[in-house]
Amino acid sequence: xxxxxxxxxxxxxxxxxxxxxxxxxxxxxxxxxxxxxxxxxxxxxxxxxxxxxxxxxxxxxxxxxxxxxxxxxxxxxxxxxxxxxxxxxxxxxxxxxxxxxxxxxxxxxxxxxxxxxxxxxxxxxxxxxxxxxxxxxxxxxxxxxxxxxxxxxxxxxxxxxxxxxxxxxxxxxxxxxxxxxxxxxxxxxxxxxxxxxxxxxxxxxxxxxxxxxxxxxxxxxxxxxxxxxxxxxxxxxxxxxxxxxxxxxxxxxxxxxxxxxxxxxxxxxxxxxxxxx
Length: 277
Fold this sequence. Notes:
Blueprint: H1 7-26, H2 52-58, E1 72-77, H3 86-92, E2 96-103, E3 107-108, H4 112-122, E4 125-131, H5 139-148, E5 163-165, H6 180-198, E6 203-206, H7 208-215, E7 227-230, E8 248-252, E9 260-264, H8 268-276
Parallel strand pairs: 1-2, 2-4, 4-5, 5-6, 6-7, 7-8
Antiparallel strand pairs: 1-9, 2-3, 8-9
Helix pairs in contact: 5-6
EC number: 3.2.1.17
Family: Belongs to the glycosyl hydrolase 25 family.
Main location: secreted
């Protein structure tokens, strides 16, 4: 007669395996890292997306007023959009896209491949962005994590330089517990490391009101780093110090098809120029 193992032994073995699996998934850099619980009353870590603080502080969006010089429509997407219908966006007139790649040093967008490769395959010029969490790791460490997980650049005419998404903290204090000088130092650290790793200067995505509050309206990055301004209104409005013009404008978080919608400040050939460096 075969010897039957007690049910409790099998149960405890399974529980131990599940515990090990959960620990591995929680490690920084785990493939397809899932969103993790935040603190009390906070959203899950990893759930932040471009504009998450803008909508809360500046409103949900508007329709750009005209007339304007020629502009080129684009979108930005994250895991919130899941698998994106890129043919529908292309047909609607969207010609460029940015995809969230990483957050902090603990999260990678599980839909990144479909979104990044899908936009490229349909014909769009596309790039990747990093949601910064300056309270969790240094700027250099986050730049490395970004580059190592989809945020690189190549001169193929279809890849835009990476974006540092620096805005209100959805998980805690607006400025991530940093002084204005400390925030400027953190941003400089990220930008320098990204330029060293890729040979390109990263784009800075931010909102003027956050920039004033958390950097003291520092103007020292404007000469090298293109500005992607977030303002959900009918006009771009005031820009952060130093920048005389914006390169991109995120004007709404409620796009007609999917994702946040944006205008590139120029015709399609200017998008190509940014991609080519």
